[in-house]
Amino acid sequence: MQLTPEQQRLGKDNFHEAVSFTRRSFLVGAAAAVPTLGAAYFQYGSLNGNPVKVGFIGTGDEGSVLLTQHPPAYMDIVACADLREVNRKRALLGDGNEVRWGLNRKLGREAASKIKLYRDHKELLKAHPEIEAVVIAVPLCQHAQVAIDCLKAGKHVLTEKLMAHTVSQCKEMIQVARKENKLLAVGHQRHYNVLYDNANDLIKKGLLGDIKFIRAQWHRNNSFPGSDSWRPGGYSAESFRKKFSADIDGLTAYAKESGFDDLDKFLAEKLGYPSMDKLVNWRLYRDTGGGLMAELGSHQLDAASIFLGKVKPIACYGYGGKNFYGVKGIGSPDQQADDREVEDHVYMTFEFPGPHYGEDKNDVTIVTYSSISTNRMEPYGETVFGSRGTLIMKEELEAMLYKEASKNTGGGGADQRLYILDGNDGLPALSASASTGPTKAAATADVGAVSRGYTEEMEHFCYCIRNNIRETPDKGGLRCPGEQGMKDAIMALTSNLAMKHHKRIVYKDEWFDPDNAAVPETDPEIIS
Ligand SMILES: NC(=O)c1ccc[n+]([C@@H]2O[C@H](COP(=O)([O-])OP(=O)(O)OC[C@H]3O[C@@H](n4cnc5c(N)ncnc54)[C@H](O)[C@@H]3O)[C@@H](O)[C@H]2O)c1
């Protein structure tokens, strides 16, 4: 949706107005007593006792973001592990990107110098029995194995999304966590994003009316030479070697030390990566990654399902293809075609039950999702279309709210400020004002103080560990525990099956039950 800057400011102003009307008393009441934004907002407290001793496993792109965002008052990083020399260095030095500072800058050189570095999670676990918990940010194919190794070593686990490569792995992770009596959290950070929580509250209070459609998208353009994903024709052996020489040399030495002359054999047999290329470019292959639905779609389906009351979907269907990287010479340079296996364009449709679906099967809400690689005109986000209003979540950091235009009650649309009125039934309702000017606050306040949720996710993880909290999310427990992470994984992984088998997949309750062995990836109705 293309909105003018003025319309965007109005939309943000409307959102803040609605939030402050509905939540003022809670926020004012809570803010005084507790130390951090997340603790105030989500009502966990400061940590009693020492910060939790943590090991970081995987300090690549995302691990380095988490290191930058980690909360030292809650978390004491004792050690980090990464297979790749370059990423071990990055943990300390950062990489010049403003979201990846490195620990030297984050903690100061002296404190950072005490953090030990290891090559893999097993070395780290062996050297540091005192570590209480781990944060895992390794490629998808190894989430389950690394998490299970850590749980069995007695560590609480916060693992990045997607929870695992298969649903049966998700179930195993939950089982092991239960057996070991350890916490298992999954890094879908929108559960800890204040903006999303506020948006969800507005929806729950009925401000948007009847929601029949949510549209989510993450569109990128990889067609420009020099863009991150531009990998002409795949890497030649020579250019690959040149680009990753430090990592290859380090791992070759590690392989030799472990009795292997062949690096790929060592990686496959000891570490679960079929080759060096697949360790580095894991996102592009099916046996190491989960495609766009796992990497991007899972976050946004997670958000959509929260907005719809955390209900399970009814069914999904869609199309996905290698429509850009698989095409030679049409609208893009020949050499763009490469050997990746995952789709570069996906378009999915999900049917979710509306609040009265039990009584009336017409009460269905549709969620569509697209992720494409050849156009980024539209910013990523989710738009919730309700019968009384529209909510736009933009790039995890902005929220805009508009009233539906109405002939009878007047006003509305993208150019009008809103007032929130008490509706007849005591719930808030939207009303539009004739004024078109945003308030000063809208232009400046925004959500600058609100993080995407990474810090809050790690704070709460540590808080639950220190206070031995094992409750469900509604009672103050982890907001994205294994059971929720598995739900998100099911949506992403069934999308891949729907696209592969060209089928409409109807979700089965038993897939969502960690104690039931039934999983979609082996369901004969899907794969036959
Ligand atoms: N929550 C989010 O918004 C978000 C964003 C990006 C990525 N992620 C997730 O984070 C995870 C990592 O993604 P990335 O982009 O950082 O990948 P990456 O390839 O940049 O980094 C992964 C790192 O893990 C290391 N590694 C692999 N196995 C290891 C082991 N056994 N022990 C120690 N180190 C090991 C690799 O050497 C590599 O450096 C993925 O699951 C991804 O989906 C989440």
Written overview of the protein:
The protein contains 19 helices and 16 strands. The protein is globular, with a radius of gyration of 24 Å. α8 packs parallel to α9 and α15 crosses α18 (482-501). By secondary structure, the chain is an alpha/beta fold. Among the domains are: 42-192 and 455-480, NAD(P)-binding Rossmann-like Domain (Rossmann fold, 3-Layer(aba) Sandwich), CATH 3.40.50; 237-280, no CATH class. The protein has helices at residues 5-31, 37-42, 61-69, 85-93, 103-107, 109-113, 121-127, 143-152, 167-180, 194-204, 237-243, 245-257, 263-271, 276-280, 291-307, 440-444, 454-466, 482-501, 524-527; strands at 52-57, 75-81, 116-118, 133-136, 156-160, 184-187, 211-217, 315-321, 345-353, 364-371, 381-386, 389-394, 398-403, 418-422, 428-432, 505-506. The protein is 37% helix and 17% strand. An 8-stranded mixed sheet has the order 13-12-11-7-10-9-8-16. It has a 6-stranded parallel sheet with strand order 3-2-1-4-5-6. The longest helix is centred in the first third of the chain and has 27 residues, at 5-31. The site of nicotinamide-adenine-dinucleotide has 25 residues, from α3. Residues 57-58, 60-63, 81-84, 87, 120-121, 137-140, 142, 146, 160-161, 187, 189, 271, 295 line the site of nicotinamide-adenine-dinucleotide.
